[in-house]
Write a structure and sequence with these properties.
Chain lengths: 125, 161
């Protein structure tokens, strides 16, 4: 009886050890997969908000709720789309501002010039 | 004793087998890092300038396509006002898709802006280091691709496709 119990304990211990050894690296992978899944679901949520959500998007809601809109509603939809495109242009414009005032730009350019002239300070590596 | 030896070797083999992908990643990283750290700093700076120029070019493309799309919407709006004619169901469906594309473009642009700002702020103290320059090159490269995707999507809106 004692021998049987001892064997069982050994077997259980061995299985536990295998489980731990297998679970650690697999656990890392599972975490990454979980991250990917979360990102996916976030993307889906974002897409959902754009199309299906009840958020502040009257143009979409108007367009979806009724395909026979009045002239005024038509114009409202088009004006809103135009305004949304203005936002896109504005955002893209902000990227230009970042490039112009990029805090790194002057430093990088100065370093490049110094390097090509052979007169500049050594760059920290 | 034999059994213990067998179990030990089995566990050892299993551990090695499971840790193989992790080890391989480490070795690969080390090789890449070694190759990267030997790159002359002038080359890195040249690459950085190229990537930044590419980013600006992508950003310009986004603005061009967004302006084209706006032009198209304004033409439809003007026609709608002049002819006092309601939009067809097909036109509305198309506009809904356009709106979805535009909203998605805004999200991407916002994230591009945030990422560039954050990198500039968080890594500025490491400025002259290779690590920072590589970070910027990677960032500009990734963001340029995203911006070209946005420009492509807006091109479809401009074309009314």
């Amino acid at each position: 009886m004692f021998v049987k119990t001892s064997r069982l304990a050994h077997a259980a211990g061995f299985l536990l050890l295998l489980f731990i050894l297998g679970a650690v690296p697999l656990g890392c992978g599972a975490e990454e997969q979980a991250k990917i899944k979360t990102t996916d679901s976030m993307l889906q949520t974002t897409e959902g908000l754009v199309l299906e959500g009840s958020g502040p998007f009257p143009a979409t809601l108007l367009a979806r709720s009724n395909n026979t809109l009045s002239n005024e509603e038509n114009q409202l939809v088009l004006q809103e789309i135009s305004m949304e495109l203005d936002k896109v242009i504005d955002l893209a414009g902000q990227l230009e501002v970042i490039d112009d005032h990029d805090i790194n730009k002057k430093v990088i350019d100065d370093q490049s010039e110094a390097m090509t002239d052979g007169t500049g300070e050594e760059v920290v590596q | 004793m034999k059994k213990k030896c067998m179990i030990f070797s089995l566990v050892f083999c299993l551990t090695m087998l499971l840790s193989m992908p992790l080890l391989a990643d480490g070795i690969l990283d080390q090789t890449v890092n070694a190759a990267v750290s030997n790159e002359p700093i002038t080359d890195i700076l040249t690459r950085l300038r190229d990537e930044r120029a590419n980013l600006v070019s992508a950003q310009t493309e986004v603005m061009i396509q967004a302006n084209e799309a706006k032009l198209r919407v304004e033409i439809i709006l003007t026609e709608s006002i002049e002819q006092k004619k309601a939009l067809t169901a097909e036109q509305l469906e198309s506009l809904k898709k356009d709106l979805e594309t535009i909203k998605s473009a805004q999200d991407i642009l916002n994230s591009v802006l945030t990422d560039i700002r954050n990198t500039a702020t968080n890594y500025a103290e490491f400025m002259p280091s290779r690590e920072y320059l590589y970070t910027l090159i990677k960032l500009y490269s990734e963001k340029s691709l995203q911006l070209y995707d946005v420009a492509k999507a807006l091109e479809y809106v401009a074309a009314g496709a």
